[in-house]
Amino acid sequence: MQAKSLRRFYGKIENSSVVYVNQxxxxxxxxxxxxxxxxxxxxxxxxxxxTYLADPAPLRELTSSRPISILVKEVENPRQYGVAVVRDGxxxxxxxxxxxxxxxxxxLPFYKFPRGFFKYLERVKPGVGGELQLTDAIQLxxxxxxxxxxxxxxxxxxxxxxxxxxxxxxxxxxxxARKNAGAH
Length: 184
What we know:
- Helix content is 34%, strand content 24%.
- It contains six helices and eight strands.
């Protein structure tokens, strides 16, 4: 079973074009996306490499949506996230790490953008933490009439950007593997 799955995975990689773009200085998530501008010629997906999703199925919906789609999840304390305000199935506002969150809908770092999105990134100024924030560019696009749709995520996820959260994710994966091994 695993061998077949690995063959399928590597077959997809062999039939893909993968381009690596270096962000020479850490100037924010928005800046990291902006550095890829010269190699993007169509709609594109941005996936934060520091987030583990237990169920990747919502990513299929994300990639088939238009024009801007964002993976979101309801959380208890959204202060550490970008936060979305949703009305009638449309995102009407986003804000990065607010002290007073306008909702409990956290933005997970998985997005789909149209090629033209770079024009918004080029116009934003450094925001939270002195960095170029992706959420600021999304907000600018929303203000200029671009529709942003939420894709709700309800399963387990982990931000693995720190040693503590990485360890928590590993412990969860080990626990799931033990339970699955015991079920056979």
